[in-house]
Amino acid sequence: MKHVYRSKTAFVLAWVWVAFVAFNVWDLIVRYNGKASLVALAVLGALTALVYAVALRPATVLTEEGLVGRNPFRTTFLPWAAIEDVTVSHAITVQYGDERVLRLWTPMSSARERAKAQRRGTATERRGRFKTEPTLPRAEQAAVEAFAGKTHADWVGDQIRDRAESARRRGEEAAPARVSWSYDSIGVLVAAVVLVIAAIVIA
Question: The domain containing residue 7 runs over which residues?
Fold first, then answer.
């Protein structure tokens, strides 16, 4: 089964930006006034290409075959058995063959999120003779305990670590990693640069 993890905040803000750009492009086309409109379109295009590369494209994908790390300009595929270690700080770092390291862009944990997770993992102090906290169903209580003190990045790191250990226990072969350039990001950035150069030349 395939699971895709992204930065929800970055993803939502990126689509808000895309909607903003779409409205402004329509407005600039309707009220086109020559060089100024062309320069504005070029700037919007360049910024949108950057937003796509750093906010929309990055994702951590868990598949049956292995881990796919989609960073702004590269995609790395690691078979589960090839993963040697996983550490989580503000980002997830995956170590594989010959001490090589893959740093995943998403999900990340901020200091604020980690502090909140630590507070969530601390037992609530009960005062007085009677319990005032509602009793959670068993399934919800198990979920709360599983996430206690952990950020989203910690949880995803655990999923990666568990799948890698399971693959090694099954005796799967540690096939080599595959790294490729993300031609979509490169393409939109090249198109944006061309648009900016054209606007400068014409202006």
Answer: 1-57+182-203
Q: Of 197, 184, 120, whose CA–CA distance to 151 is shortest?
A: 120
Report the distance separating Cα 138 and Cα 187, nearest Å.
50
In a domain, 202, yes or no: yes
Quick check: is 113 in a domain? Answer: no
How many structural domains are present in the chain?
1
Look at the pTM and tell me if it is higher than 0.90: no
The single residue listed with the structure tokens 């509602």 is 134
Query: How does pLDDT run along the chain (203 residues), one tens digit per residue?
Result: 799 999 989 999 999 999 999 999 999 889 888 888 888 999 999 999 999 999 999 999 999 999 999 999 999 999 999 999 999 988 999 999 888 999 999 998 776 766 675 666 554 444 445 555 556 566 555 545 555 568 889 999 999 999 999 999 999 988 999 999 999 999 999 999 998 888 888 86
